Sequence to fold (174 residues):
Amino acid sequence: MADAKSSKSDVTALSHVSREAFRDGMAHLAGAVNIVTTDGPAGRAGFTATAVCSVTDTPPTLLVCVNLSSSVAPAFLENTALCVNTVGPDLAELAMAFGGKLPVDERFVDEDWSTDVTGAPCLKGAAVSFDCHVTARQEIGTHAVLFCEVLSVARADSPSASVYYARKFHALDS
Fold:
């Protein structure tokens, strides 16, 4: 077995896969469809993301990745309130709108929104909403990774969710 020093040098000698190969591979990694929202001094904003995952349950923390070149990035980089709203097939059109199909100021118009502890917009029709306080940010390449401490969780009575796989939405029922 090689020692850590020789393994590290072997890895650094390798080249990365192409951007296209990585993106094609990621298209086959299923992810929950989430509408991530914020509000605060930098304004109200939201986007659709699959790049959300659990970090730890003590304290309850999620991570969310936001593209630094997106129109919503400045709001997410300044505000500390954030809500991850996991959506089902009934909200696929809204997920598409938050994916960039509508200007940021028009995305919140047609649905029922509320606020919880942080003041971030919580979607009433979501399968689950995680109301969070952003505790840390780390920029990696084209994205910022936001570490978000969960302060409140709201679940739907009979939720359904969607996953994004092979560049399409797929419905999941409970």
